[in-house]
Amino acid sequence: MKEHSKNSEKDKTWSIIKRLFAIGMKFRSWFLFTLAVSIVLALVSTYRPILTKEVVDIAIIQHKSREQLMHQVYILVALVFAESVLNLFLVYFSNFISQNVIRDIRERLYKKLIYFRTSFFDKTPIGQLVTRAVGDVETIATVYTDGFLMVFGDVLRVAMVVFAMFQTDLNLSFITLAILPIMLWSTRFFQKRLKKAFGDERAWVANQNSFVQERLAGMTLIQVFNRQQAEFEKFESINKTLESALLKTVFVFSLFFPVVELISSVFLGLILFYAGFIEVSPGTIVAFVTFISMLIRPLRQIADRFNNIQRGIVGAERVLGIMDEDSAIKNEGTIQKEHFQGKIEFQNVHFAYDDKQEVLKGISFIANPGEMVAIVGATGAGKSTIISLITRLYEINSGKIFIDDIALPEYEVHQLRSHVGVVLQDVFLFHGSILENLTFGETIPLEAIRKAAKEIDVDDFIMSLPNGYNYVVSERGASMSLGQRQLLSFLRAYLAKPQILILDEATSSIDDESEKLIQQATEKITQNRTSIIIAHRLSTIEKADKIIVMDKGEIVEIGKHKDLLLQDGYYAALYNAQLKGKNKQH
Questions:
Q1: How far apart are CA 186 and CA 193, in angstroms?
Q2: Handedness of CA 308, 313, 315, 319 (dihedral sign)
Q3: Is residue 93 within 8 Å of residue 34, measured between CB atoms?
Q4: Topology of the domain comprising 12-324
Q5: What is the pLDDT of residues 443-477, one digit of tens each?
Q6: Per DSSP, which regions of 181-235 are E strands?
Q7: Tell me, what DSSP letter sits at residue 328?
Q8: pLDDT digits (tens, 9 = 90+) for 139-197
């Protein structure tokens, strides 16, 4: 069982390496160029100790020729200079390839994320996704900077050094080669421990990021309930665990390098000891001292690179795991329509978020083209879920939803959404100008935006702000009141010119003045289009063509405002309760 687990782990690692290599092959020409630099560098660096041997044995000891010495010294200097330049090219172009690949992976990952179903984000902490998209992607860079090309260059240098050693002295070569299995064993030993350490480290980095992101988003709640100290203690605990994981990786690294230095020193001593008992030329000893250094350096670098690559592979496993996630919207539909009539029909629709407790239990209703349909009910009745199903943020469990008598899955999902305008209860504004928040990157002339804003009486409010439409909104719109954010969201939806408009609790929790403005805006933007209003204040939907009353995921009443009041049922009870509450406030 354990052997099977090990083989499975190896297969997974090789699979990740192959995929990363395949991604890198997008920059094949740069790979080949850097590969050529690696080969030339290996040849140049290997020839240097051979030339050094000739300088010592022939130019200095045998001929004692100053002219020959200077000539070979010039060649040595040229080789060292060439080696430095080639190293510069190798490092630069390895990083060049790495950053291009990382940019490509970031774009692929982000594109994948923005097309995921909403249910994926419901169950995945945002902090973890940020870690995957930023931190883990960055660690993948080491697979390329310290990976394929560098390891190939190091292996090539080792092979050439071994070949050059055997050409220089056979006996000393066998002694030197004994270092290889010891280095390989020590590298493997440390690599296993580092993989686990890196895995723990990345997991706790993700946990910390998730914790911080959630607490910063909910800072108001923490302060209101005086939870600062308790939340700090939780953070302190996570931080200490992360510190422990990081120190574990540092300890393994710190232990590895002295071990490598010790091994190289022992073998250098053996070379010098053996040379003292046999007749070996001074040039050969100098060459082998250089050979050992040249052998140890790439072996140590290979070990170091494998450790860094291990960190990159751990990051790549997490990133590729997200990219392999089958959470994209199932977009089987192909139908695209330039214009919707706006007829919406639910037929016996059942839906549950967690496949355990149904939120909608056989919902059926029809919203005819141009109608204003209000949906009311207590919290948790399933009102807002209907919006998510119409826009296909979630897929229904059973039943059917039609728009213009065509089943929803038959539409091309992104084109479908372009015909549906949504104003949510929790208005989200990005950090940027009002203009940027209204257009979402679309090119819309300011004159056209102002004309639309005047039509729904929003222009005066925007122009009263500093810099008007160029007023910079803080993150999530915190610098504006809820009513102001709602007005902007109305204008944003209006600019999209949707044939179907959905307002989710758009007038809840706002002052009377803002409610009046929003009521005026609602009347204008709902004209000549099918509108579904999820209502909190029942006084705002008295003019609705149809009111659907929901309770515990079921429709309990349908009718107009006056008719429902005459029925003296669930709607009438809700309306009278709100009316009493309002009278008490006054």
A1: 11
A2: positive
A3: yes
A4: ABC transporter transmembrane region fold (1.20.1560)
A5: 888 888 898 888 888 888 888 888 888 888 876 66
A6: none
A7: B
A8: 888 777 776 677 777 888 888 888 888 888 887 778 777 777 777 777 777 767 776 77
Smallest CA-to-CA distance from 58 within 236, 283, 233 is with 283
Residues forming beta bridges with residue 461, ordered by sequence position? none
Give the pLDDT mean for 45-73: 74
- Give the bridge partners for 472, in sequence order: 433
Q: Given the DSSP bridges, would you call strands 406-407 and 398-403 parallel, antiparallel or unpaired?
A: antiparallel
CA separation for the pair 42, 32 (Å, rounded): 15
Residue 420, amino acid: V
Coil, helix or strand at residue 303: helix
Listed by start position, the domains of the chain span 12-324, 344-426+498-585
Query: What is the CATH class of 344-426+498-585?
Result: alpha beta
Q: Measure Cα distances from 498 to 108, 341, 371, 519 in Å.
A: 30, 11, 14, 19
Q: 138, 136, 141, 256: which is closest to 206 by C-alpha? A: 136
- The closest of 343, 518, 342 to 425, measured between CA atoms, is 518
- Share in percent of the chain as helix, strand, coil (round to 5): 70, 10, 20
Quick one: which of 245, 195, 204 has its CA closest to 6?
195
Q: In angstroms, what CA-CA distances link 292 with 178, 269, 302, 358? A: 11, 11, 15, 71
Count other C-beta atoms under 10 Å from residue 130's C-beta.
16
Q: Among candidates 143, 103, 134, 144, which has minimal Cα distance to 205?
A: 134
In this structure, are residues 469 and 454 in contact, taking their beta carbons and an 8 Å threshold? no
Helix ranges restricted to H, 218-281: 219-224, 228-275
> Of 484, 465, 464, nearest to 476 (Cα)?
484
